[in-house]
Amino acid sequence: MSKGFPKNFLWGGATAANQCEGAYLTDGKGLSTADVMSAGNLERPREITNGVMEGKYYPSHVAVDHYNHFEEDIALFAEMGFKCYRLSINWTRIFPNGDDENPNEAGLKHYDQVFDTCKKYGIEPLVTISHFETPLGLLKYGSWENRKVIDFYMRYCEIIFKRYKGKVIYWLTFNEINVMSTKAWMAGGINSDDEQVRMIAAYHQFLASAKAVQLAHEIDPNNKVGMMYAGHFAYPNSCDPEDIQTNVDFMHKMLFYCDVKCRGYYPAYKLKEFERKGIILPIQDGDKEVLLKGKVDFLSYSYYLTHVVGKETSLEFKGLNGVKTGYKNPYLPTSEWGWAINPMGLRYSLNLLYDRYQIPLMIVENGLGAIDKVEEDGKIHDSYRIDYLREHLKEMKKAIEVDGVPVMGYTMWGPIDLISASTGEMEKRYGFIYVDVDDNGYGTFKRIKKDSFYWYKKVIESNGEDLD
């Protein structure tokens, strides 16, 4: 009987272009939805502005300047022993307006350099094609509410699949696609609370994803294409049958996205919900076949927390992380940002998803946002982050070893400090590597290894056997 993590396990870390690259207009890049989201914090939500406004700070414009530091940063990832680096291509570096006839060569060259640097160190890139940065130029079409945007996305996919053939074999079509139900602007440039609008946009993203899966396989049979789910998992507040049913309803609102992408069709419960609400999808001839043929090869997801829901829960998606259920779990501690810390929930989530879909899984985001302090000796002693990650890895190991769940890899979020998507802060740090930059974009941008850097290096060296 095999024990522990598989030999070819993809250990690594994950970033997003709009949260780490900066250089927001460099080398012909166009504006994206991320570039017009101002900074916020726990008390003040991020604002979506009409273009870039003077006097406001936009974190994506500077971020941690990974665009100009990628060689240094990837070398640090290699020092930790990364087997895999999950990153995203910034769509507007390739097609600045989204609907351009021809791609921007400077943007294509940049990612050539990034992937070549990864290969130099034996690091496998895992590329998210669209990670919360829809081109602003597509808003004139209505963004993803318009079926035409599928064609623009496919033009983008064809260019990058061909250009990076042999350099990239692992792809994710959309980051956290179910965020269309919680933060539609981030998910697809939809600035509307209308559920009909959001569900049409999601439908078009499902079709785009399915077409991208088929195209990736045609261009290179070695390509493996996955989906990415924002890991919302919930427990019922009690054994009251009403609480149980509310929990089922809550999970249906999230998991239907996985159902469509992993099974290739809309589940009956969602179609019945649409019927009750009068939501009509713009289905055209051949669409159902496209969804069925474009099922993903694997399911990846983020895991940070679990929710508690019950009969008093409003199933409206509100709150800092897109969901506010009204209940706290008394058995779990919380992070400085109020997220429930639940390592055992990771094992639970792996079993739930594998039981449901029977395809390989990958944890592509998991980490602790915390305030890190640089000590007088210039070091960062982040034992709290090590504790968090250790306990989660133990539970993932149990899912593999005890439950038999096929887990492909684990890319911790984010291996280097970057901008928080939810608040736009730098103060909320995740990294193994500290970046000297503050909430206003000021600093030396110097990289400093935290204690967790050396701990993760040891974890990878031992293939997850040494977690102390």
Q: Quickly give the CATH architecture.
A: Alpha-Beta Barrel
Order of helices and strands: EHHEHHEHEHHEEHHHEEHEHEEEH
Largest sheet: 8 strands, parallel, barrel
Query: Can you identify the CATH superfamily?
Result: Glycosidases
Task: Give the low-pLDDT segments.
Answer: none
Question: What gap, in angstroms, lies between the N and C termini?
Answer: 24 Å
Mean of residue pLDDT values = 95
Task: Tag the structure with descriptive keywords.
TIM Barrel, beta-glucosidase activity, alpha/beta, 13 helices, 468 residues, Glyco_hydro_1, two-stranded parallel ribbon, GH
Descriptive report:
- The chain is α/β, with parallel strands linked by helices and 468 residues long.
- It has one domain (10-461): Glycosidases (TIM Barrel), CATH 3.20.20.
- 36% of the residues lie in helices and 12% in strands.
- The chain is built from 13 helices and 12 strands.
- The chain has helices at residues 17-20, 66-80, 91-94, 105-120, 148-163, 184-188, 195-219, 241-263, 268-277, 287-293, 343-357, 383-401, 451-461; strands at 10-14, 84-88, 124-130, 170-174, 224-230, 234-236, 298-302, 307-309, 361-365, 407-413, 433-435, 447-449.
- The strands form 3 sheets. It has an 8-stranded parallel β-barrel, surrounded by 5 helices. It has a two-stranded parallel ribbon with strand order 6-8.
- Helix 12 links the parallel strand 9 and strand 10 (407-413).
- The two termini are 24 Å apart.
- The relative contact order is 0.14.
- The mean pLDDT is 95.
Summarize the structure.
One of its GO terms (biological process) is carbohydrate catabolic process. The protein is built from 13 helices and twelve strands.
